[in-house]
Structure prediction request, 73 residues.
Amino acid sequence: MDALRIDNLSFSYQNQKALEDITLTVSKKDFLAIIGPNGGGKSTLLKLILGLLEPKTGYIEVFGKSPKDAASL
Prediction:
């Protein structure tokens, strides 16, 4: 089981695209750094992983569960 799995994830703030077609798999022993310019979608991605935002398309699994269900781990 992967620690994090993101498939075909997209998110928009009203008409402003923040993330488009993101696919990512992070294994349990992997380290991950999220870097990029201001306004590049880093905080939005983290909010989606934490379940604070709902994706427009795609899905996220944290240890095989939805972000909101994984919060109980």
Notes: The chain has two helices and three strands. The beta strands are 4-13, 16-26, 57-62. The radius of gyration is 12 Å.
